[in-house]
């Protein structure tokens, strides 16, 4: 199975595109970016130089993923979401000279396996989004998000937990710190502010 790249997309010749990956109209994938298999890159999405993207990742329309971001397998990035890469952004240095690539140190947004980042949300690097976490639409993420956390707001704060299905978990009656997925029945345990799957 080969990749599918629309004629209006711009994919640098040094980028690596995995089997079965689709790159839609007006998307831009820069030099040395690596996308795994089965990915979907929506219309107008941007993938910066050297960005690493796993398998079965969806970048919706106009998502902006700046280097050196790393996205794990199964990550979802909603429409017009932005991953920044400069903690102290300035166009010029203190003397007023235009800054160039070597004048600042890029920092990464890292999104772990299965996590979802909602439409028009902003992830301010450096930050890590944990496994299977869910960032609500319009949120501004300024600190790390734990595995399975549901975060929302500006700045984003944890407002609940979600399971692998993305459904908000409910507290299990009679069991303190135990959560259940209404969709799948999977059970999770909360320990020291972290959520783990019950074996």
Task: Give a brief description.
By secondary structure, this protein is mostly beta strands. It has strands spanning 4-5, 10-11, 16-17, 22-23, 28-29, 34-35, 40-41, 46-47, 52-53, 58-59, 64-65, 70-71, 76-77, 82-83, 109-111, 116-117, 122-123, 127-129, 134-135, 140-141, 149-152, 157-161, 170-171, 178-180, 187-191, 194-197.
Model description:
The chain is an all-beta fold. It has two domains: 4-162, Hexapeptide repeat proteins (UDP N-Acetylglucosamine Acyltransferase, domain 1), CATH 2.160.10.10; 164-199, no CATH class. The protein is built from no helices and 26 strands. A hairpin with a 4-residue loop joins strand 21 (149-152) and strand 22 (157-161). The model has no long low-confidence stretch (mean pLDDT 96).
What keyword list fits this structure?
single chain, about 200 residues, mainly beta, UDP N-Acetylglucosamine Acyltransferase, domain 1, 2 domains, 7-stranded parallel sheet, 26 strands, about 0% helix, globular
